[in-house]
Structures are given as C-alpha cells and as structure tokens.
Amino acid sequence: MIPLQEIRQFIVDKTKANAARFGDKLPHCADEDNYNFVDNCFWVGGFWTGLNYLCYEMSGDQSFIDNARRSKHRFAKRLYDDRHTTDHDLGFLFSLSAVADYKLTRDAESRRIGIDAANTLADRFNEKGRFLQAWNVWTPGDPFSEENRGRLIIDCMYNLPLLFWAAEETGDSRYRDIAIAQADTCSTTIVRPDFTTFHTYLFNPETGDPIGGRTFQGYADESCWSRGQAWAIGGYTHAYRYTGDRRYLEIARRCADVYIERLEEDLIPMWDFTFQGDKDGEPRDTSAAAVTAASLLEMASHMDETESAYYKDLATRMVNNLYSFYSTKDEPGHEGLLKEATSHKPQDSGIRSSLIYGDYYFAEAVARLQGQTVIYW
C-alpha cells in the first residue's frame, strides 16, 4: 500500500499549484492536461471550493481558504441573480462552498448563503409526488425538456445534506421533512428491487403519479450507471447519519454490495455496469470509484466492527489503486488529480478525462482515511 502521507502531499501540492493558475475560476473537465472552466458554477463549482477546504484541513495552510473564497461572488450571482438557472444541484454547489466555509470558520455570511440555498432547493418540492424536481424545463415544448417538470434523479440523494443541515441549523423541520420525503420516494422508484438504480425517474407533475425509470447519462433505461449507483451509496448513508433511520443504511449497504459485485479486478468500475469486462473498449469511470470510496468510509463509520473493517479495507484499496494506476502523480503538467473519468458517455463528453468531482471525492476519501476532515455534507 502507498503511504497515505504521499497521496495527501500529491493532492495538496497539485491543488496549490492549480489555485495559483485558476484564480477565481471554477474548473470542470480536463480532456487533456488543462481544465476548462464554468462561468455560472454549472453543477460542479462546489467541488473546487470543497477541494480547497479539504486541503486546508490536510495542510493547515490558510491560503486554501483564501483560494476557495475567491469564487464566492460566482456562487452568490448564481443564487441571487441567476436564480432561474438553479436546480437540485444546489446541494453540490453550496454544501461544499458556503456550508463548508461556515463549518470551518463560523463565517456568518456563509451561513446565511447556505440557508438561502436550502430555501431555494426546498422550493423545488412537488407535494403531490413527494419529490424534488431535479432539472428545469430547458427548452419549452421539447418533449424531453418538458418531462423535467416531473423528473427526479439519483444524484439528488447527495444534495439532501444541504436540507438536513439547514434543519439542524435553524430548527425548522420543513427542510428535514422534504429531505426525508425525497429519500423515501427515491427508495421505491429509482432504487430497483435488486438495489440497482435508474438514473432518473418520471412522475406526472400534476398528479404525482409515477411513470417510470429513464436514463440520461447511463447506457439504457434498464442499465445501471456506475456513478449513479455511487450517488445512491453515499446519499443514503448521509440520510442515515442525519435521521438514524436504519432503512437508509440498509439501502446504502445493499446498493454498495451490488456495486462491489460488478467491479473490475482493480476495483475501478466501467462507466456503466452493462459493460463489465471492458467490452469493446468502453471507458472506466474513476470519478465513480472516488465517490464510492468516500461513501464507503462514511458508511463504515456506522457499522459494527466486522462490517466496518470490510468496507474500510475496500475503500482503502480503491484509493490506493486510483493513486497507483489512474492518478497524474508522474505528470506534473497535468492539472487533474485522476484520469480515466467519464462525464457523459451518451453525449461523448468528457471521456477518459479528469473531472473536478472525481478529484474532490478522491481527496475526501484520503482526508477521511487520515481522520482529517469535518463532514461538509
């Protein structure tokens, strides 16, 4: 096994060098050596700020907090000025920016922004269907876009911590009630009886009646997109952490076991589990592996000694393999931490690339293994 100190130093050094180049910009995807940037945060902006907060915790270097705060104006503009573009990914955006800042520094403005983001997320709740509307109607009249009025997606399970945090912070149970309703609805729709997952699920937005599962980033409606399965593992684990409801921990465990059964020998999944065994040269997804490693470590902290040791050992080996075989440790000019991630295979976007969320979760897993992080989620 590679010493964790070596992996940690790699993360800290590369992030510090990147911050000097990025300024207040928010990276998304590096198809080659250099990251491209998103102006309005997209859904990924929080992962860069979160990565800097993790590096602050791992190093004690105040400059990482300064780096994260440079982009604060972009998050504020998205939340207050461009509200028509916000969607369910407010959790990804603000748990790892405003909420992380508040948890680390007790900054009052960051707390206010985090709660305002939670309010905006709660406003997306569909009372009839008991779910948070994931996406907006991007193109009125377009059939797929119109379906978004009644669409939830598995990714949203990782956005619920923003609502749970707001409930604890303010004492207003409305946030918690919405998060629980979303988790419960997802558990009987997106999570299939065999504990694989759909990517998205459609409802009649007027009546709340379920329609059926659909994919957008997976191979097919009935397939199991590996990063979606990873979102389920972590999302339900965090739902358990906030509620103590054992059903959620059991869902997380069952989803994790399904994921583990379908892994390649080096513990890095194909982009969709339809392609087990690297069929026809289909790509892997190191970002799914990183999300899963961080999620398994959280899950292990809630289990008995035997199960905890099993999942922690597995996550440790995932981190080791990511660093040994898929990192840029020998490529100082490459801005990403991990290679061979898959953003959106059906749209041929971000294939065999570095993705900022893969980098973030890789760093979160390392920080967890060293016991050096507060929980931003």
From TrEMBL:
Keywords attached to this entry: Hydrolase
Keyword Hydrolase assigned: yes
Superkingdom, taxonomy of origin: Bacteria
InterPro entries membership: 6-hairpin_glycosidase_sf, 6hp_glycosidase-like_sf, Glyco_hydro_88, UG_Glycosaminoglycan_Hydrolase
Coiled coil residues, start to end: none
UniProt key word Hydrolase: yes
Listed GO MF terms: hydrolase activity
Recorded family membership: Belongs to the glycosyl hydrolase 88 family.
UniProt-recorded name of the protein: Glucuronyl hydrolase
Annotated organism of origin: Paenibacillus glycanilyticus
